């Protein structure tokens, strides 16, 4: 089972994939013969997840396309303001 995280890019009129995570169950663990011991002492194969990427580019494109103002500045979404420590990104002079 795979879960994809996508962002909407209005200027491109499409969603852009930024991350993907797969639950490989115990398939990869069986191939590697990787095991763990339960509290009862039983050997089991662990389920393994595989994260394929975390692409920053499409995220920035979607943020700029969604929040860019007429003067070229970009309003920073409230959820990101604590990390960027600003409400607005001004264009270069």
Question: How would you portray this structure in words?
Answer:
- By secondary structure, this protein is α+β, with helices and mostly antiparallel strands.
- The protein has a domain at 2-65.
- The protein is built from three helices and seven strands; from the N terminus they run ββαβββαβαβ.
- It has helices spanning 27-32, 56-67, 81-84; strands at residues 2-9, 14-23, 36-37, 43-44, 49-54, 74-75, 88-89.
- Strands 1-2-5 form a three-stranded antiparallel β-sheet, covered by helices on one side. Strands 3-4 form a two-stranded antiparallel ribbon. A two-stranded antiparallel sheet has the order 6-7.
- The longest helix has 12 residues, at 56-67.
- The mean pLDDT is 88.
Topology at a glance:
Elements: E1 2-9, E2 14-23, H1 27-32, E3 36-37, E4 43-44, E5 49-54, H2 56-67, E6 74-75, H3 81-84, E7 88-89
Antiparallel strand pairs: 1-2, 2-5, 3-4, 6-7
Regarding quaternary structure, what we see is single chain
Unreliable spans: none
Number of distinct helices: 3
Kindly provide the radius of gyration, computed on alpha-carbon positions and rounded to a whole number of angstroms.
21 Å
**How would you spell out the order of helices and strands?**
EEHEEEHEHE
Sequence of strands across the biggest β-sheet: 1-2-5
**Distance between the terminal alpha carbons, to the nearest Å?**
48 Å
Count of β-strands: 7
Strand content: 25-35%
Percent helix range: 10-25%
Provide mean pLDDT, rounded.
Answer: 88
* Main sheet overview: 3 strands, antiparallel
Principal-axis shape: elongated
Structural class: alpha+beta
